[in-house]
Amino acid sequence: MSNNQDDREGRLKKKILDRFDDETSQEIKILKSRPDFRPELEYFVDLLAGGRDPATISARTGRPVVALMCLQAPLELFHVYGLQPFKIFGGTMVAQRLSAPQLPAIMCPMLRSALGELHLDLAGSKGQKFLAWVTPTTCDWVVKIQDMMEVCGITEKPPFHRLELPHLKDRTESQDRWLEEVYLLRGFLSQITGKKKIRRQDLARSMNIYQKSWHVFSNLIDLKRTGRVPEIWFMVISNSFFFDDAEKWTESVKKALPVFNKREKALPDIFLAGSPIFFPNLKMLHLLEEAGLNVVMDDLCSSERIFPGAVYFDDFSEHGLLKALAQRYHQGCLCPTFSDNDRRINNIIAPAHKDLYKGVVFHVLKGCHPFDLESLTLECRLKDMGLKFIKLETDYTSEDSQTLLTRLEAYRNTLAN
Amino acid sequence: MTLAKLRYITQHIGFLVFTYGGFLQINLGQSIPCLSCPFVYSCTGFCYLMMLQRALGVLFLPLNRAFSGADPWSNIADNFLSLLFGLGIFSVLVIVLGKSWCGWLCPFGLVQDWITRLRRKLGIRESEILVRQKEKLSVIKYILLGYLFIMPVLAGSGVLPVDFILAFCNICPAKALMPLFAGDVQYIAMDFSTRVALGFSLALLIVTAAMLIGMFFKDRFFCLFCPMLALMNFYKRLYLLKLAKEPMACHGCGNCRRTCSLDNETVYRERVKSNVYDADCMGCFKCVEGCAADKSLLVKLGPFKVFSSSRRYAARI
Amino acid sequence: MGYKIGLDLGSTAIKMVLVKNNEITWSRKVPTAPGQEALAMELVKGAVNECGLSEVDIDHIAATGYGKKLMSSAGHTVDEISANAQGLHWLSEGRCRTIINIGGQDLKVINLNEKGLIADFKMNDKCAAGTGRFFEQAARILDTPLEKFGEMSKLADEPLELNSTCVVFAESEIVSLLAKGVPKERIIKGLHHSVARRITHLLGSRNTPKGGDIYLDGGPSQNPGLLEALEDELLMEVKVLPNPQFTVAFGATLSAN
């Protein structure tokens, strides 16, 4: 009986693994056959095509890989301990089939897919596992990730570290609390690596490395603001950030910048807000292109928000550096799970005052409640300003493409009005 | 050229000119709105605080003379005019540059910045205890300003000994430290000439020592107490060089607060108003440089934008 | 010369209009089936023959609806929301500010400005509740042709509270109500009210018009029972065009200008 069960599971995994490869390679093919594909972009596409298992990434970067659930844990801290942080995103539709039966019907499809991918044992297929697992407590799904891993039967159990994220980021007490958490994270990293001490000069160097990455990425953002970077390429570049060493990635972005030298068409500019989008599920971006909408700004945590932004520091003591990191990754974070979050809404609305875009497309993954709720506030404020807003709710499935496209086309027509 | 480098240069120019300009026979008058200490014998212009104390003392001399039977009204008009004249020049200088005198030119401010640099080189953190007491400590400068007004009046009227005309200068750490740069050590020596002088020289040493410790553990520690800053605050509506915020563009990242030498929270906290020129602000505009949001913080000269924050500028290495 | 064809390839029916000088001269609909382009071309041929025209008289074919991409012979395609807006704006002579369109598988609310341009729109999400499909399903279970729904619901005095608008759950609910011997008239009236409530929710406060007329559009709007229920729920007058199922196809021809 149990043998049969094992056999069935094995066959299911095999089947889904095949489809998983299909789904990935199909998207790669689409990307590489685009007329605006250039050799400079190959690096990023290949990173995504090369797989996301710790073995591959560890071999590429020469560092043990730590899984990261959300972006509030300072990346620089991992770097200085000789670790490669890897933000867990789920992008394949088919992987959900391995986790869906065990999970609630309405839940974040991104994490359902991520759990499926982990379950596929992609993570362990080459023998190497995540060295550890770090989770800032953001949304409900992320908070419960360890339980869900258990429910899904993911047997790989690396050391698990949670960072309690204070959801009121404007309070001094919360900010102090988060600084404590960053100190605790440092302790955890020191424990798993066995490195008792880090030199403050090394930490400052790591911070400069990420600052450099942000600087170059910022140049790319500026190009995007002028409509020269198709959102698909922007997403490919940002999605691939965690797949390689930050410095190598930065060099490649620098080389890719000249590719985006002209604006292809004069299409209406929009702001893309809402739930993250991750390779290979670039459905929404393809539809936006098909509907003739040009994304010049976004606030997705898989795209423009993968970096917290510039970390200004002038106190070079270890405490000063850690404080700078803690504050930047917490207070400056525009994740919708924070409670005092008017600045997140402002971030979307302020550029409209300067006429930088014509309307907002709000992408909500079914079950992604923080974004869904927030869209109501945003819709009211935008419409009161006379701006166009459309919310598109979707799932990890391609069957709603047609209805989404219809809406986007009609939305595009309203932008001209 | 970044704003920080430019500021570092102007601070040094300010230091050199105010401290050594006297060798070149430069005279910039007696109404300088920064601590260009007159006790430095090669100084170029006098810190207005000294001028103010002296003018107040002189203005009230008639009372003193009246007690001793002399004609109380001789020179009164002259004295009053010279007070007004000094105040006029001071006002113009403050109105044009605002408190940027402190952040960009003040020689004593630069000395504090040197000490901070030394601390950072050593990797010693800024004292959180001092930072958290900042709100309470910064009230002292208004008390000192009151002291600075009352003592010369009392001394001029003869109630207090004449040493009290320069009551503030006598305990100002700049008087002890700045002359050292001209090779003059007399003000850190004890003055045994009179009991009052002895008292003042002792007080000066204690204050200076305390300030040096404070300045080592906290950026711009003395500025919290500086009556010049308090005096300049009376002009706050008139500054031409201003700091403005566009609260809608702010992401609340906290770079501005962290980089502020005086640990002001106003720039970070403000969500509605445009004017964020805090009472303790020294107009250095480091916050504008550190601000990672496009056009969230602005430096304005009158109606013109001189410099605005940007994502790209903040990301420079 | 001067004829235009508007094709609306919907999820349940293909609607076609022949238009000259912005007047509908011929219209017909057929149920959607595999091979939509062939079906549509047959309709075109039918129109040409019946009106005594030849292919050269047709200046332009405009396609809209979910199947619009399948029409290789179309001169241009337009999304059905924009087509609906243009069609109703023209046919209501500019009085329409709000369109409630009940399609085969979706429900749309479109707000227009004075110029007839779309100000805002909303669509229901991947659910057949309150759509044409829901009525078809109900008609099958009740064993009553859809055309009779209007007059039958008039006969009922009190509408029945139905618990679910979901196609699947409503089915079992109707079956059990029938088994209890509840008269069909009351069930039908109840259905109309539950759909009307759903539409009212979709409209929300933001999309409820402050002025101008509300039009109910699409196939199911020919059902007077539904219209009555909707006016009752919305507390507003709702208008219907004479041939509401052809508005979108007609609008597609307008968008060719």
Record the SSE blueprint:
The complex is a heterotrimer of chains A (417), B (317) and C (257).
Chain A: H1 2-32, H2 39-49, H3 54-61, E1 65-68, H4 75-80, E2 84-87, H5 96-99, H6 109-119, E3 132-136, H7 140-143, H8 145-151, E4 160-163, H9 172-193, H10 200-225, H11 231-239, H12 246-256, E5 269-274, H13 283-290, E6 294-298, H14 318-331, H15 342-353, E7 359-365, H16 369-384, E8 388-394, H17 401-416
Parallel strand pairs in A: 1-2, 1-3, 3-4, 5-6, 5-7, 7-8
Helix pairs in contact in A: 1-2, 2-11, 2-12, 9-14, 10-12, 13-17
Chain B: H1 3-20, H2 48-59, H3 61-67, H4 76-97, H5 100-105, H6 107-121, H7 128-132, H8 134-137, H9 140-156, H10 173-177, H11 195-217, H12 227-232, E1 241-245, H13 255-259, H14 266-269, H15 286-290, E2 297-301, E3 304-308, H16 311-314
Antiparallel strand pairs in B: 1-2, 2-3
Helix pairs in contact in B: 1-6, 2-4, 2-9
Chain C: E1 3-9, E2 13-20, E3 23-31, H1 36-50, E4 58-64, E5 76-77, H2 80-91, E6 96-102, E7 107-112, E8 118-123, H3 132-142, H4 149-155, H5 167-179, H6 184-203, E9 213-217, H7 224-234, E10 238-240, H8 247-254
Would you kindly provide a written description of the structure presented here, covering whatever features stand out?
The complex is a heterotrimer of chains A (417), B (317) and C (257). Chain A contains 17 helices and eight strands. Chain A is α/β, with parallel strands linked by helices. Chain A has one domain. In chain A, the strands form two sheets. In chain A, strands 2-1-3-4 form a four-stranded parallel beta sheet. In chain A, α16 links the parallel β7 and β8. In chain A, α1 runs antiparallel to α2. Chain A starts with a helix and ends with a helix. The mean pLDDT of chain A is 91. Chain B is mainly alpha-helical and 317 residues long. Chain B has two domains: 230 residues, no CATH class; 75 residues, Alpha-Beta Plaits (2-Layer Sandwich). Chain B has a three-stranded antiparallel beta sheet. Chain B is globular, with a radius of gyration of 21 Å. The mean pLDDT of chain B is 91. Chain C is 38% helix and 23% strand. With 257 residues, chain C is of the alpha/beta class. The longest helix of chain C has 20 residues. Chain C contains eight helices and ten strands. Chain C has a five-stranded mixed beta sheet, sandwiched between helices. Classes of the chains: A alpha/beta (417), B mainly alpha (317), C alpha/beta (257). Chains A and B meet through α10, α14 and α15 of A and α13 and α16 of B.
